[in-house]
């Protein structure tokens, strides 16, 4: 029996490629997947955010806030 906390590579690959786990074809949403950055449908394109994983969404929001702060700081100096 498969351990739900430690799925096999095959299951992880199946989840990433399953169109039912993609909202509008570009937002990954899979509550079973605990990875913070799962690969995109085409792995060579990099990683994406799992919007069903709270840690993943918080990290994504944190990155957005960081880049907004950097941009604000740079623009404010000019």
UniProtKB/TrEMBL annotation:
Keywords carried by this UniProt record = Membrane, Transmembrane, Transmembrane helix
A Pfam family annotated for this chain is DUF5808
**Domain DUF5808: residue ranges:** 31-56
Show the stretches that span the lipid bilayer: 57-75
Q: Which InterPro entries match?
A: DUF5808
Q: What name does the UniProt record give this protein? A: DUF5808 domain-containing protein
Supply the source organism's classification.
Answer: Bacteria, Pseudomonadati, Bacteroidota, Flavobacteriia, Flavobacteriales
């Amino acid at each position: 029996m498969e351990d739900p906390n430690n799925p096999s590579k095959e299951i992880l690959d199946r989840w990433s490629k399953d169109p039912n786990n993609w909202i509008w074809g570009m937002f990954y949403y899979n509550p079973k997947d605990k990875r913070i950055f799962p690969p995109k449908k085409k792995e060579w394109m990099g990683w994406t955010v799992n919007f069903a994983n709270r840690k993943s969404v918080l990290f994504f929001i944190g990155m957005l806030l960081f880049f907004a702060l950097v941009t604000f700081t740079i623009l404010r100096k000019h």
